[in-house]
Write a structure and sequence with these properties.
Blueprint lengths: L2 H19 L10 H23 L6 H10 L1 H15 L7 H17 L4 H25 L4 H20 L4 E2 L3 H8 L1 E2 L2 E2 H19 L1 H11 L1 H6 L4 H27 L1 E2 L5 H13 L11 H20 L4 H27 L2
Antiparallel strand pairs: 1-4, 2-3
């Protein structure tokens, strides 16, 4: 085949890959993903109205800002997880990465290691976990669920071993500043939240890399024929997932002023729930950052509302499980709709 002929073939394959990925971007009124986003808005509005009727404090500005601040750690991890799932990957080791990160940070600070050096080490740990997951999934072709379950078990066990299963009190001025400081009534955490999603939306909607995520998840073979660097993209996304979890570990250490091997346990379910509830397909090729943002808001409002109503944490866990099941069932319904001629 001539060079020009090969070029035309690659272009056609790229076009095909992007057509396959169109189902993931909610850009048309008839798109199921777009309709799901509208459904999320209705759910969010309904929950806010319900909790405002049950508690007079819900609509207080301080409470709404608290919802955003308390959702920051989940939001930071859900953004790269969205791109990972859209591209056909999966990572259930984020909770374990948080655990090993926060325990390591506590031990390093207790040993007198300077704060900057300790954070660098913790971020490297997150990078290493992400690289391990990527190597297993991308290079060794291990099923993503099995691979990340394995690393989850390893790093959860390591966190408990290093800490002897105990919670360590952490007193650090920098951690306190970064998690407790406010600009007016707004926590610095809220600005982090906004920054992460502003960057993610730009990446998703205006860059070639963002289109690659959908193309790879929508039709990996077409993406390969188009010359897309599938392995490099997926490798990078697993590393981003690990790094985001280590950042979450640092923030949680500051928020809680402690380091616990159990601190990451709730995030295994909540991160995946946020992404799937937000419209991402477990099979890849569909999802959106806006959808994930709405889902994070829904989960944050639920947690806050349950706290205002003095409901036990077990009720929150039940609600989270129900939300995940509903999201997966709805995902299956959307896939059947998309397969219709």
């Amino acid at each position: 085949m001539s060079k020009s002929g090969k070029s035309r073939s690659v272009s056609r394959s790229a076009a095909g890959a992007e057509r396959e990925s169109d189902v993931s971007a909610p850009r048309r009124w008839t798109d199921p993903g777009f309709l799901q986003s509208q459904g999320l808005l209705l759910i969010l509005a309904g929950l806010m109205i319900f909790f405002s009727l049950k508690s007079p404090f819900f609509w207080a500005t301080s409470n709404l800002l608290n919802v955003a601040a308390s959702s920051t750690v989940l939001a930071i991890m859900a953004a790269p997880q969205t791109f990972l799932i859209v591209s056909g990957g999966f990572d259930v080791s984020v909770g374990a990465t948080i655990a090993i990160s926060t325990v390591s940070l506590g031990l390093l600070l207790a040993a007198g290691v300077p704060m900057a050096a300790a954070i660098v080490v913790v971020l490297f740990i997150g990078l290493a976990v992400g690289a391990a997951n990527a190597t297993l999934v991308v290079l060794l072709r291990v099923n993503p669920l099995i691979a990340t379950l394995g690393t989850m078990s390893i790093f959860t066990g390591l966190a408990h071993f290093l800490s002897s299963g105990q919670t360590e009190v952490v007193r650090n001025d920098f951690l306190r500043w970064i998690t407790k400081t406010q600009v007016g009534p707004v926590s610095v955490l809220v600005f982090m939240f906004i920054g992460v999603y502003a960057i993610s939306i730009v990446l998703e909607r205006t860059t070639v890399l963002g289109r690659w995520f959908y193309a790879i998840g929508g039709n990996a073979e077409a993406a390969r024929l188009a010359g897309l660097p599938i392995r490099r993209v997926q490798y990078s996304l697993y590393i981003a997932s690990g790094l985001s979890a280590s950042v979450g570990g640092v923030l949680l250490t500051g928020i809680l002023q402690s380091a616990s091997p159990r601190v990451g346990d709730p995030f295994l379910l909540s991160v995946v729930t946020a992404v799937i509830l937000g419209g991402a397909s477990l099979t890849g090729g569909r999802g959106s950052i806006i959808g994930t943002l709405l889902a994070v808001a829904i989960l944050g409002v639920l947690q806050n509302g349950f706290s205002l109503l003095l409901l036990p944490s077990s009720v929150q866990t039940i609600a989270l499980g129900i939300a995940l099941i509903v999201a997966v069932v709805f995902d299956g319904m959307l896939r059947r709709i998309e397969r219709r001629p």
